[in-house]
Structures are given as structure tokens and as C-alpha cells.
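INFO batch 0412 | record 1 of 1 | parsing
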Amino acid sequence: MVWSFGSASLAPGSFAGLPSSPTLSSTAPLLTAEQLIELQSRRSRVVKRTGDIVFSLAVLSIGSPIYILLGLLVKLTSRGPVFYVQQRVGRDYRSFGCIKFRTMRRDADRVLGRLLAESPDLAEEFRNDFKLKNDPRITRLGKFLRRSSLDELPQFVNVLRGEMSVVGPRPIVRKELPRYGEAMDEVLAVRPGLTGLWQVSGRNNLSYDERVDLDVDYARHRSFRADLGIILRTIGVILDPRDRGAY
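INFO prediction complete | emitting C-alpha cells
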């Protein structure tokens, strides 16, 4: 499969010839996430972290009126807190609270258990994708926030804390770890991203295996130029929230 990336096309395993970071060869012994982090260039890590901080501060300060407006809309249109915090797995397997604007009713976790118990089809869908395409728990405003990816704007706070990066692999929950197999340490050698290849390549329109391929591909071939292209594509997704697989 080939993914569109700006004016170029990308296939798994290639960032169109962009310089890559140290990775595992098929014959090399498997390294842990911690060992892979130690092999990374200190200069590239400092540059990426500096860019994350500067970009996040700019978005949080310039976009503060949007944050306030969205927060008020969430509070006024449904009962419950403004934010939803879910435990995700970060770099080197460290857990952190991933922050989003709340897009579901406040009793969403309890309702999910009932839905899965009553419908084998929904239970199977959730086991495969860890989410539901037509989820009745999502509020009317929540559908718009998810489709436009605006629900993820609070994650810039996670970026400032050093728990995430602006661009990186998807932040996943612990139940997803086995789905990555031996590639998990490669993916968790970098910070998960607020946006990434998955978010600009079809999101949930892709199979789970394709999601994994994208995360591994990013971890192996990340670069400043690739990050910049992903950020530009993300802006386009937000400004034109058509059906891009976000739900």
C-alpha cells in the first residue's frame, strides 16, 4: 500500500529517501527501547525537543481564545468535565495521562461495557480497532471535534511536559502493545505524537496492521523534513474536516 504525503507518495519502509535513524536489521539482536534511545543522536533529540517546546508554546498562546471557546462549548452542550484524560504508553514504556477535550457522555465507560455485552458485533469491532465507528456515546459536538481533530489540541500540554512530541507514532493504550510484536521497542524509543503519519493517511480507514506499519516506518525514518510535511498535512486536515477516517 502507498500513502499520500504532500506531493509525494510513501510506501511502508520508506520516507522517500530521507535520512533515517539507527534501526534494527533483520539479523541484528533485538534491542530494548532504552538501548535504542541511547543510540539516538543527542543533537537530533535536542533539536526535536526544542522545536516541540517552541511550537507548543506558540499554539497554546496564540490559540488560547480557541481553547477557551471549545472548553465552553464542551461544558455547555453536555454534562461532565471539559477534559478527558486517558492513560497511554509513552517513550520507554512510561505511562502518562493523554489529555483531550471530552467528546463522550460522562458515563461512557459504563455504557461501553453494556454495549459490548449486548452486541457481539460491536465487541468484535472493539477488539479489532479499540474503538467503534458508530459510537452512540459520542456527543453531537464530540463528533465535530473528532472529525476535525480539535479534540486533541490539549495534548500540546503533554508535549510541553515532555510526554509527547508534536509529531510521532500514535499514543496507544497498554492493551495494544501485543499488536506491535517485536517492533514495539522501536516505536517506543521515540515520543508518541500529537499528529503523525497515521493521522494524515486515513486514520481509522486503515487496517490495524497498516497503522502499525506507519508507526514503525516513522520510528525508523523520522527526520525534520518529514515532521514538517506531516504538520502541514495536519493543518489541512483540520481546515478541511471531510471524512478522513477520524471518529
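INFO post-check: The CA atoms of residues 115 and 122 lie 7 Å apart.
INFO record closed
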